[in-house]
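Please, structure for the following, as tokens.
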Amino acid sequence: MTAQMYLDRLAALERSDEDKARQKASMAFGKHTQSSVVSCNVSFRREIDAETLVGILAGRIPIGEWKPHLQVFFNELWHETIMGVMKENRLTFEQLKKIFSLLLFQGENFTMLLKYGKPVLYPVTRERFVKQFSLHITRDEALADLDRFLAHLMADATQDVYEHLCEYLDFCREDFVRALKRVQPGMFYTEKKWYFWNDLLDVKPRLPYPGN
């Protein structure tokens, strides 16, 4: 083993120890906070931890390079999850509003939550959900082929979406696994997002990445 290989190995071990320490620290936070951290990290190589996320939301830590992760938090997570994070960490709307104002893209998701002060109900039937959230294919195509719709949805969605659909719209793990097996090349932009869904759905062995 060369000196450089030895140093690289030490560095990898140090990163591994740091990751384990962050994971252990995150376990001290509530389930909504832990879930939001997972969702915020899905599309990014560098991962934010629960302590940093909550610190930013509370105004104790500068947002700095974590803006992309906060974009996901405010614009993609379900209202129930955001409210859960607030309750678990005793955060106020005013605190979150200050951080939200720093983002380049301020979508309707958090804006609606601010407006009503409580979670806004999502469509109560599969058909209404598909019509509202079919982004990459037409609504008629989505309704005619729910597997294809779910595949496109997973490429953009987070764990919150999966939990919401299973709890409120009678989808189940098997629906998502079936859709994952039908994914065509080009639907998933990153391997990380692909394997995230494999692990979330407990697909063993992992399905091979279809490529982009």
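The mean pLDDT is 83. The chain has two domains: 3-116, 126-200.
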